[in-house]
């Protein structure tokens, strides 16, 4: 069962293979040009450097993350000064000198709305089947009616149990709506021997976007 405890434990024991050192190349390649100051939501953000990149582009970035360890490591690793205040059950960490804040707590308790854009990398596919619809609905409710979305998803064969979970193309469309479009994909099993060794012939990373 993928519970909040599961994720807190992953951070406690340092099992964070999903974390990438650099900025995700798909973000740099496919992020749309939006007006500076636009509000960008990064659900289930971990300690992703992608948030720094987005903030440096001039967007007002909000990451939401359950684990206090992830938040502390993100702020520490990047040498960021910050201020913290409590808002209900959530802790808000606002970074000094960058338009960036990290909301620490359960994403499903985060209720801000009117975001202009959303970046989902390893968030939807971190959610088990039973919570995935709720995750996408909650995310869409946070966005303005004209918001852009950039989603990095994953689809693989074989009987691996997630996370990351495999989500097929039809499910992506039925979750996010007809306006979502697949703009790129790459079968990582062809280039990364590890996926082949784990028995996958398909391990497809795909990039999707909603662009109003
Ligand atoms: C697979 S990681 C991806 C992190 C990040 N997006 C990245 O690209 O590195 C999923 C993250 O979601 C966090 N998470 C899981 N459930 C959550 C929840 N209900 N609310 C907030 N964060 C959650 C986990 O702690 C973990 O850091």
UniProtKB/TrEMBL annotation:
It holds the Pfam family TPMT. GO terms for biological process: methylation. InterPro entries: SAM-dependent_MTases_sf, Thiopurine_S-MeTrfase, TPMT. It comes from Marinomonas arctica. This is Thiopurine S-methyltransferase. It catalyses: S-adenosyl-L-methionine + a thiopurine = S-adenosyl-L-homocysteine + a thiopurine S-methylether. Keywords: Cytoplasm, Methyltransferase, S-adenosyl-L-methionine, Transferase. Belongs to the class I-like SAM-binding methyltransferase superfamily. TPMT family.
């Amino acid at each position: 069962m993928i519970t909040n405890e599961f994720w807190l434990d992953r951070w406690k024991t340092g099992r964070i293979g999903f974390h990438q050192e650099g900025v995700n190349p798909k973000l740099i390649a496919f992020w749309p040009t939006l007006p500076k100051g636009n509000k960008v939501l990064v659900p289930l953000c971990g300690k992703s450097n992608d948030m720094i990149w987005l903030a440096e582009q001039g967007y007002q970035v909000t990451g939401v993350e359950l684990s206090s360890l992830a938040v502390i490591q993100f702020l520490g690793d990047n040498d960021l000064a910050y201020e913290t205040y409590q808002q209900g059950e959530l802790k808000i960490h606002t970074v000094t000198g960058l338009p960036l804040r990290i909301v620490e707590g359960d994403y499903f308790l985060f209720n801000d709305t009117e975001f202009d854009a959303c970046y989902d990398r390893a968030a939807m596919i971190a959610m088990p089947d039973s919570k995935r619809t709720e995750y996408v609905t909650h995310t869409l409710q946070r966005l303005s009616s004209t918001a852009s979305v950039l989603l990095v998803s994953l689809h693989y064969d074989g009987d691996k149990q997630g996370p990351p979970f495999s989500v097929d193309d039809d499910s992506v469309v039925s979750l996010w709506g007809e306006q979502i479009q697949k703009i790129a994909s790459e079968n990582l099993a062809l280039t990364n021997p590890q996926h082949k060794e784990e028995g996958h012939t398909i391990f497809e990373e795909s990039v999707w976007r909603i662009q109003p």
